[in-house]
Write a structure and sequence with these properties.
Strand content: 5-15%
Bound molecules: 3-methylbut-3-enyl trihydrogen diphosphate, magnesium ion
CATH superfamily: Decaprenyl diphosphate synthase-like
Shape: globular
Number of helices: 8
Order of helices and strands: HEHHEHEHEHHEEH
Strand order of the largest sheet: 3-4-2-1-5-6
CATH architecture: 3-Layer(aba) Sandwich
CATH class: Alpha Beta
CATH topology: Undecaprenyl pyrophosphate synthetase
Number of strands: 6
């Protein structure tokens, strides 16, 4: 679809896409490789998906990189993943900046190794004025933990019970200021939330492409966006004729 056609169909391009990048381990196993090789291949896919999102007019992209439950994986996989995340910052930050992406982190940083915390904070700082696309990285993120964190903060701030409403909740989540995802993509054929953006995906459209994350390229992204364009979002209302 060319640029002018795209503008003719209001709402056809999701403003915010969120991706559960799943299937790295199976991608590696099918090639007889260690799981960490799958994770490495997965990180190499991120750059082209960011670029494809920008080309499609997507303004916000959220990627699920590491959940609060993923700490329970074998120690060597967890430490390998942390090393890979550090490498990604070293390798990709300048390219991300050149792409005009503004980095946001979703999740908690306590309990994360200091060298990685510093890289995350530096990445957020360096890219804070970019506006081509906002890239939210959900790392050490859990949807339930996010809600607990928001309630803790409200109590700390002395918020009264009758002041609590959905708008206030939005402001206390890690995603404050970011519109809810329109489209959530979970790669690798799995069909579950796995503690991702529980609050924010209340009315998101979901697609479940079969491709493992390292194989999920711009063409697959295009198909997901097309599927989204064919959906009718009703938000609990009745069909408009
Ligand atoms: C997703 O790939 C990446 C992370 C959870 C860090 P997986 O590692 O879950 O891959 P599969 O599901 O085992 O194939
Ligand atoms: C969700 O995938 C987390 C990320 C992609 C970072 P998992 O592979 O951890 O989820 P489950 O275990 O299949 O539900
Ligand atoms: Mg998985």
């Amino acid at each position: 679809m060319n640029e002018s056609n795209k503008k003719d169909i209001p709402g056809s391009v999701p403003k915010h896409i969120a991706i559960i990048m799943d299937g790295n381990g199976r991608w590696a196993r099918e090639r007889g490789l260690p799981r960490l090789a799958g994770h490495r291949a997965g990180t190499e896919n991120i750059r082209r998906i960011i670029e494809a999102c920008v080309e499609n007019g997507v303004k916000y992209l959220t990627i699920y990189a590491f959940s609060t439950e993923n700490w329970g994986r074998p120690e060597d996989e967890v430490s390998g993943l942390m090393r890979i995340f550090e490498d990604v910052f070293d390798r990709e930050l300048s390219e991300l900046h050149r792409q005009g992406a503004q980095l946001r982190h979703l999740g908690r940083l306590d309990g994360v190794q200091q060298s990685l915390v510093e890289k995350v904070r530096n990445g957020v700082e360096v890219t804070k004025n970019n506006d081509r696309i906002v890239l939210c990285v959900a790392f050490n993120y859990g949807g339930r933990d996010e809600i607990v964190h928001a309630i803790q903060k409200m109590i700390e701030d002395g918020v009264e019970a009758d002041q609590v409403n959905c708008d206030l909740m939005d402001q206390y989540l890690f995603t404050a200021g970011i519109p809810d995802p329109d489209l959530v993509i979970r790669t690798s054929g799995e069909q579950r939330l796995s503690n991702f953006l529980l609050w924010q995906t209340a009315y998101a459209e979901w697609v479940f492409p079969e491709a493992y994350w390292p194989d999920f390229g711009p063409e697959e992204l295009q198909k997901s966006i097309q599927e989204f364009a064919n959906r009718e979002r009703r938000y609990g209302l009745v069909k408009q004729n």
